[in-house]
Design brief:
By secondary structure, this protein is an alpha+beta fold. The protein is built from nine helices and 13 strands. The longest helix is centred in the first third of the chain and has 18 residues. The structure holds adenosine-5'-triphosphate, thiamin phosphate (TPS) and magnesium ion (MG) (3 copies).
């Protein structure tokens, strides 16, 4: 199969989004804007040897995880997913059936959110790289920013933290672990929190960020963007029941600095916290209050742990720490 045959093979037979005018097959895709809506776009890249290896993921997971990370950014912006474009760099060593499986992984998740694949690019290269652009829409004035935290807000997080790195650890280390499939799935097939994020549309103000690099890094991002201090409480950080089987030091490392959990971190007014809990229940999403926004130092995160309060540094997965 050549480049054009490949493009034909990944093309959807029918599109789901009514605003799409022209999808795959021309120099660009065309879709119409909608009254009262703003577009939101995000791009993230997924690289063999950096984000995955043949040891940690099957081709299906590669596609699923790469698109999930992008949809998670749409959730963090309060946007409803609509379209995606995929740029793929393909090494000689990857077979056509593996490439089809990558697209099957993306398609499974795309179908869930009625997203259409409307374009991309195909080139050969040395390692497998997927770069995905997603396009979503938010009601005008309702995109959610990292800069919207205010003193007095409740800080919350969805799901449990550290599971993805526990899964990666299981996949790359020998050993017997309880519930290993749960942790492996959390690493390979994270669930973007779209229903929860869209359920919060009614709130007048909420700061949101998604956890790709670890809650320490993302909490610092909100604190910096909003010019506030955020105080977290270690005892309130949610972990899954079998997370305690790992050494204490690894638990600490993974939940604060591990990343790839793709949970949402947010801050809301105290009086809106009940509504957040109601929407979480309605959308089957676990949510936990983990701290408070306070005044004082601007752009700092403090962590109460073992009866001490210390600074939680903006450390975590960083591609350019050299
Ligand atoms: N190479 C780049 N060129 C232009 N803008 C960039 C580049 N890299 C990042 N950005 C922009 O910087 C901001 C922060 O991006 P960042 O990638 O840190 O966020 P994220 O996608 O939520 O996190 P992650 O990549 O860890 O999932 C975004 O506005 C992003 O578009
Ligand atoms: C084989 C293998 N080795 C290491 C890791 C760990 N890892 C890679 S990227 C990243 C942060 C998120 O990246 P980004 O900021 O690009 O979203 C993390 C925690 C992995 N997933 N697979
Ligand atoms: Mg990014
Ligand atoms: Mg993000
Ligand atoms: Mg990152």
């Amino acid at each position: 199969m050549d480049e054009f045959g490949f493009i034909d093979s990944i093309k959807q037979e029918a599109y789901m989004q009514p605003s799409l005018i022209r999808g795959i097959g021309d120099d660009g895709a065309v879709f119409s804007s909608e009254a009262g809506k703003s577009f939101v776009t995000c791009i993230d890249t997924f690289v063999e040897g950096v984000h995955f290896s043949k040891e940690t993921m099957q081709p299906f997971h590669v596609g699923y995880r790469a698109l999930a990370a992008n949809i998670s950014d749409l959730a963090a912006m309060g946007a409803e997913p609509a379209f995606y474009l995929v740029s793929i760099v393909i090494p000689q060593s990857w077979e056509m059936k593996e490439l089809s499986a990558i697209y099957a992984g993306m398609k499974e998740l795309a179908k869930k959110y009625q997203m259409d694949l409307i374009g991309g690019d195909t080139v050969s290269g040395e390692s497998l790289i997927l770069s995905i652009t997603v396009i979503g829409r938010a009601d005008k004035g309702k995109a959610r920013y990292r800069s919207d935290a205010s003193v007095g807000d409740v800080v919350f997080v969805t799901g449990t933290l550290g599971d993805s790195q526990a899964g990666l650890h299981i996949l790359t280390n020998q050993g017997e672990y309880r519930n290993s499939n749960y942790f492996i799935d959390r690493h390979r097939m994270p669930e973007p929190r779209i229903p929860f994020a869209l359920g919060l549309k009614g709130l007048s103000r909420i700061a949101l960020n998604d956890i790709s690099d670890g809650v320490a890094s993302e909490t610092n991002e909100i604190a910096e963007a909003s010019n506030v201090t955020i105080a977290l409480n270690d005892e309130e950080i949610p972990i899954s029941s079998d997370f305690v089987q790992f050494p204490k030091q690894l638990q600490h490392q993974w939940k604060y600095f591990g990343g790839e959990d793709f949970e949402l971190l947010g801050t809301v007014r105290e009086q809106d916290w009940e509504e957040v809990k109601r929407i979480a229940e309605k959308t089957n999403t676990r949510v936990s209050k983990i701290g408070r926004v306070t005044g004082g130092y601007k752009g700092h995160v403090l962590l109460k742990i073992d009866n001490k309060e210390e600074r939680l540094e903006k450390k975590g997965y960083n591609h350019l720490s050299r």
